[in-house]
Amino acid sequence: MNSRQKGKRGELEWARFCREHGYVCRRTAQYCGNTGEASDVVGLPGIHQEVKRVERLNLEDAVCQAVHDCSGEIPIVAHRRNHHDWLVTMRAEDWFRLYREFECNEKAGTDDVGEK
Questions:
Q1: Domain ranges of the chain
Q2: Which helix H or strand E contains 103, and what residues bound it?
Q3: Angle at 83 between CA 92 and CA 2, to 5 degrees
Q4: Is the model's pLDDT at 34 over the cut of 70?
């Protein structure tokens, strides 16, 4: 299996994992690496999803790629090795941004969908 096929398989697997958790996500159509939708997977508004399904991953390079392609969205790298759980890696500043939003919702007494 070539790297393009492995990448596609990982992206489909991540999209399925997101759907299992209640988020309607799908792999973007990718033609020569230029889609107009830079994320590997779409469906989490405001989040740029870079997906890596490899045994050895250079996280710094993967995060740099996500940051470069994010177009103002919060960049994440969703990654998984064989026989391991999915992990999400992001910059600390972006994590704090998400956490601040979570805290604001908690203080306002809203749940995760904004309802009281």
A1: 3-91
A2: helix 92-108
A3: 90
A4: no
Question: Which region holds residue 83: left if phi is over 0, alpha if psi is between -120 and 50, else beta?
Answer: left
Residue with tokens 């759907």: 19
Instruction: Tell me the one-letter amino acid at 62.
Output: A
Q: What is the CATH number of domain 3-91?
A: 3.40.1350.10
- CA 87 – CA 72 distance, rounded (Å): 22
Token look-up 């710094």 returns 60
The proportion of the chain whose per-residue pLDDT surpasses 90, expressed as a percent, equals 73
- Residues 68 and 93: beta-carbon distance below 8 Å: no
Highest mean pLDDT: which of 5-9, 94-98, 111-115? 94-98
Q: Which residues have CB under 8 Å from 22's CB, separation 6+?
A: none
DSSP 33: T
Per-residue model confidence (pLDDT) at position 40: 93
> pTM for this structure?
0.83
Which strand (E) or helix (H) includes residue 74? strand 74-79
